[in-house]
Specification:
The structure is a single chain. By secondary structure, this protein is of the alpha+beta class. The chain folds into 5 domains: 4-189, no CATH class; 202-294, Immunoglobulin-like, CATH 2.60.40; 299-403, Sandwich (Immunoglobulin-like), CATH 2.60.40; 409-516, Immunoglobulin-like (Sandwich), CATH 2.60.40; 527-678, Four Helix Bundle (Hemerythrin (Met), subunit A) (Up-down Bundle). 43% of the residues lie in helices and 27% in strands. It contains 15 helices and 29 strands. Strands 11, 12, 13, 14, 15, 16, 17, 18, 19 and 20 form a 10-stranded mixed sheet that branches. Strands 2, 4, 5, 8, 9 and 10 form a 6-stranded mixed sheet that branches. Helix 1 (4-54) crosses helix 3 (91-101).
Length: 679
């Protein structure tokens, strides 16, 4: 028989195993309880947050749901966590629990626990100490084989831990990626000591809030929606009666006419009594504010007199019931304010309280006057002196808009296209120009063969501010001593009466009048009876001058519209013109080489063509060089000289074709081959 201390040690080892299993069992219950508690709390918070969203986070709803949430959380905590882990469990029940999860023990642990509880009590007559010793030793051995009971709870502990992790992950995902009202609701519910108004994510900020206004004044009410959007916003206003009057607010517009998100306003006219008011939208209400009405001076009516800049030639204009101002820059505004009661003076306040102030002069009839020059956009209001001597706001805030003086426009209505004429004809051209505030002048600018520009005044405004002008001029080509192939280019120039603005001068498109041979139409018609390819070749030859005119027009437009392009766009356009001029020059040079490679006939017209075309190519090369230097203006003279040479060569070519046609279509072989080269 073993010593008693050794037997006692075995009994203690059995009891330690029982306590270890009991603690792990309680840990499992705690983990599972916490997991279920997290899920229950999450469900409670979700339901409460949804309820707050339905009631639009009304202060009363926030208080009620806070109470419900905390009562539910306490009940869940007691039922799901505290109650399970605080339950007392005897050693015998733990031993039975171990036997259920480890049937191979065959009730050894349960029997050993029952024997161990006897301690040193007196043994019965049939008690066998040796049998007890062997029983406890067997129990200790089997407990060690199951790792002191750790295997009993391992699987369930892992499952409880996984359940807790899943519940925590679900809560984190919902809080992070769930609807915004869920986060706002949880924040409002879990801060019981926080202000209920501040806890709401949906608010309506109202200006001016509580305020004191003059009797008869107009008062603007502005509202800003915070945390939500809505299309319908209403002002509820209560005067001396018991009911609230409802007024819709309109969206606030930005400077470019777009709707400013969440901003609304309404103007209350002629306030005669105190009013309580608040703003409401889709269930969200602002706090209630009060407008007190007292006897203070107020601008009952504002009269405005506009004195426009001298260059417009416009007469002064009076606005009897004014407020907002929209005039040209440099306009003098003379203001006259009619107060609701006597006052000793006042001020015009520009751009809120930080801007300029202009004193109002008190007139004999009790009105107040002032004048100011409109130079930039902004705001202004009228402040008047109250009976107590302080300045009080006496009008709404009015806007000052500066209108833009648009540049004039110019165009030709006759003939409105490129044309031809003989050297003895008269050609009438008519230009039209208009401007929003009146024209200073309209000029016809022309140039012969790209030479110096000459100007003819079609209209001189003087003291007359005409907004639309049509005027014409007749070109007498016999006086200009032009030859066939020469040309006259012309455009209209309209000048704004505001000579200080950047784009006071505006040019029309550039047009051309080409000088043709006298009676060429008759001769060409007669030539159609013979010569199989004369007219076709002439049409092809004229394509060279047409292409050159297009290059000149494009260059002219580029110079005219220079301010509309940035540096990169301007450079790209100049490069395009350079390439176009280069390609046309190569075509002319190719034609010259083909003509030089053949035996030219003795016809003087062909010799003239051979002399003129190289000059055209040389002028084109000069234009290319100017364009490569980004000097589009400097490229115009050589471009126009090239056009003159091309047109003279074409006139000589037309003479050849007429001559060949007059011969009945036969013509010499050399002459026809040369004509085909030109074609």
């Amino acid at each position: 028989m073993r010593d008693e201390p050794l037997l006692t040690g075995d009994r203690n080892e059995v009891l330690r195993a029982i306590r270890h299993v009991r603690n792990r069992w309680r840990l499992r219950l705690g983990l599972r309880g916490v997991a279920v508690l997290v899920a229950a709390a999450l469900g409670t918070l979700l339901a409460s947050s949804f309820g707050l969203e339905l009631f639009r986070f009304d202060p009363g709803a926030i208080v009620a749901f806070r109470v419900v949430t905390y009562v539910a959380l306490l009940a869940f905590g007691w039922w799901l966590f505290i109650r399970p882990i605080s339950r007392r469990v005897s050693d015998e029940r733990v031993a039975l629990y171990i036997e259920e999860h480890a049937p191979e023990l065959q009730a050894t642990v349960l029997s050993a626990v029952e024997e161990s509880r006897r301690g040193r009590r007196e043994r019965a007559a049939d008690h066998s100490p040796e049998l007890v010793r062997r029983l406890i030793e067997s129990a200790v051995k089997q407990i060690r084989e199951i790792d002191m009971g750790r295997r009993v709870e391992t699987g369930q502990l892992w499952r409880s831990t996984g359940l807790l992790a899943a519940a925590a992950a679900a809560a984190a995902l919902l809080f992070t990626f769930g609807p915004a009202y869920l986060r706002h609701g949880i924040n409002a519910l879990l801060t019981p000591m926080g202000n209920v108004e501040a806890a709401s994510p949906y608010q309506i900020e109202v200006l001016p809030g509580d305020a004191t206004v003059a009797r008869g004044a107009d008062q603007a009410i502005t509202a800003r929606l915070v945390g939500f959007e809505a299309e319908e916003v209403n002002l509820l206003m209560q005067g001396s009666g018991d009911s609230f009057d409802r007024l819709p607010l309109i969206p606030v517009l930005t400077e470019d006419g777009a709707i400013e998100a969440g901003q609304f306003e309404v103007l209350l006219f002629d306030l005669q009594e105190p009013v309580d008011y608040f703003v409401e939208s889709i269930g969200v209400e602002s706090p209630t504010y009060r407008l007190d009405v007292i006897e203070l001076p107020y601008a009952e009516r504002i009269e405005l007199e506009y004195h426009f800049p001298e260059y417009t030639g416009l007469e002064p204009r009076t606005v009897e019931d004014g407020g907002d101002i929209a005039v040209l820059q440099g306009t003098e505004v003379r203001l006259r304010a009619v107060p609701t009661m006597g006052t000793t003076g006042g001020q015009l306040v520009f751009d809120d309280d930080d801007g300029q102030r202009v004193d109002l002069a008190l007139e004999d009839d009790g009105t107040l006057t002032a004048s100011f020059m409109v130079e930039e956009e902004g705001f202004y209001r009228v402040d008047l002196v109250a009976p107590a001597g302080q300045l009080v706001t006496a009008s709404p805030q009015y806007t000052i808009d500066v209108l833009t003086d648009q540049p004039p426009s110019a165009m030709f209505i006759r003939p409105g296209r490129d044309t031809t004429a003989s050297a003895i004809e008269e050609v009438f051209v008519e230009a039209r120009a208009d401007d929003d505030f009146g024209l200073h002048s309209l000029d016809l600018v022309y140039s012969v063969n790209g030479g110096p520009e000459e100007s003819v005044t079609l209209f001189d405004g003087g003291g007359n501010a005409l907004r639309e002008v049509s005027a014409g001029h007749t070109f007498f080509f016999e006086e200009l001593e032009l030859e066939p192939g020469d040309f006259l280019s012309y455009y209209a120039r309209a000048t704004d009466r505001n000579l200080l603005q950047q784009d006071a001068d505006v040019k029309s498109d550039l047009y051309f009048i080409q000088i043709r041979r006298y009676s060429q139409d008759y001769r060409m018609q007669a030539s159609q009876g013979g010569g199989g390819g004369g007219m076709g070749g002439g049409a092809d030859a004229r394509e060279l001058s047409k292409a050159q005119r297009e290059i000149i027009s494009a260059t002219f437009n580029l110079v005219r519209d220079r301010e509309q392009y940035d540096a990169e766009e301007f450079e790209e356009n100049v490069v395009f013109l350079t390439l176009a001029q280069g390609r046309l020059r190569e075509q002319v040079e190719t034609l010259v080489r083909r003509m030089n490679s053949r035996v030219m006939p003795a016809d003087p017209a062909f010799r003239t063509i051979q002399e003129i075309l190289p000059r055209a190519a040389e002028s084109m090369r000069e234009a290319e060089n100017e364009l490569q230097e980004q000097d589009a203006d400097g490229a115009l003279p050589p471009e126009q000289r090239a056009l003159q040479h091309l047109q003279r060569a074409e006139e000589a070519y037309e003479e050849v074709m007429v001559t060949m046609g007059g011969g009945g279509g036969g013509g010499g072989g050399g002459s026809r081959q040369a004509a085909e080269d030109l074609a």
